[in-house]
Amino acid sequence: MQLPEWTKPALLGAGAGAIALAIIGFSWGGWMTGSSAAKMSSKDSMAAMVTALTPYCVQKSQADPNSTDLLAKLKEASSYQRRGIIEEAGWATPLDAEKPVRALADACQIALTKDL
After folding, report:
1. Are residues 51 and 86 both part of a single domain?
2. What confidence tens digit (pLDDT) does each residue in 10-20 have?
């Protein structure tokens, strides 16, 4: 079986067009792989959760009977030690969670120490 003479250039053009379309789509078109979309979604949902729960963390700190002592410790602590103090106090642990959320502790310490 013999193919027509125009078949080879047509197939090469279609292949080159597909490659160019993929390069343009992923570079400038906003296309992304499934794993990139999952990472972006996870990051966005964590940011939304931290934004929603920061007032909860601040309120939990105000309701804590040891809050004056812990806030004094926060004032004296360096910025990288503050998150640990908030995590140990349990202020960054949402309801029904076993462990504190690190990003929530960071946001909470920023909210609590902006007036110190």
Report:
1. yes
2. 999 999 999 99
